[in-house]
Each structure stands twice: as C-alpha cells, then as structure tokens.
Amino acid sequence: QVQLVESGGGLVQAGGSLRLSCAASRRTFSSYVMAWFRQAPGKEREFSAAISRSGGSPYYADSVKGRFTISRDNAKSTVYLQMNSLKLEDTAVYYCAAGVDLQTFNYWGQGTQVTVSS
Q1: Residue 114, Cα to own-chain centre: how many angstroms?
Q2: What is the average pLDDT across 55-59?
Q3: Residue ranges in the chain assigned as alpha helix (H)
Q4: How far apart are CA 41 and CA 28, in angstroms?
Q5: Cβ–Cβ under 8 Å, residues 73 and 81
Q6: Does the structure show a pLDDT above 90 at 26?
Q7: Rounded to whole angstroms, what are the CA distances from 7 to 12, 37, 92?
Q8: Of 33, 69, 72, nearest in space to 53 by CA
Q9: Which of 9, 37, 77, 118 could form a disulfide with 112 if both were Cys (CB 3.0 to 4.6 A apart)?
Q10: Burial class for 87, CB neighbours closer than 10 Å (0-12, 13-18, 19+)
C-alpha cells in the first residue's frame, strides 16, 4: 500500500505559476511510475504528466506540454509538478498517482485544488 499526499494547490492569476508536491509513504517510491492527473468541474479525470522510475523520460499531455514540468526526488519520495503560464482552463483538482506503468495506476492521492483566475 502506498499513501500519497498532495500539497501546493491554491488560487493563482492567469499567467502565474504554482508548484505541486506529492509525498509518498513508501520507501519503495523509486519502484513506481508517477503521474499527475486532473479533473475539472463537470469533466472526467484526465492525464497531465508522468515520469519514469529513474526520473527520466517525462511524458506530457498536449494541453500542458511546454508549460508544466514533472520531476521527482527518490531520496525524498516526492514527485513535483511545476506549472507555469497557467490558464483559466487549468483550473481543476490535481491528483498524484503511482503505478507500475503508464496504463496502470494503483494508488491515488486525495487531490489538491488549483484555481486560476482572470
């Protein structure tokens, strides 16, 4: 069992930046592929970014490519999402997930709200 706790959400103006963090409970953090998903009001949860076990090979949804950066620190069992040039449509609850590959995420955090205002 892996417990994930997100932090760093909040209210930001369009064009601004936020950095989300997700701390994992397990020492085996480095054995998991990590990802960020988001769910906007009235919409289904969608993939945003993922990163391999070693921290290489980041993968992004087209909607965030060039603006968001995913990274991880295996020594701290933490994954990050740096969000720049935020847009109104980035408003959502952001979830951290851990899994065995890009199609299988077994563990989810409780989510952190990001609200982008005009």
Answers
A1: 11
A2: 90
A3: none
A4: 33
A5: no
A6: no
A7: 15, 14, 14
A8: 33
A9: 9
A10: middle
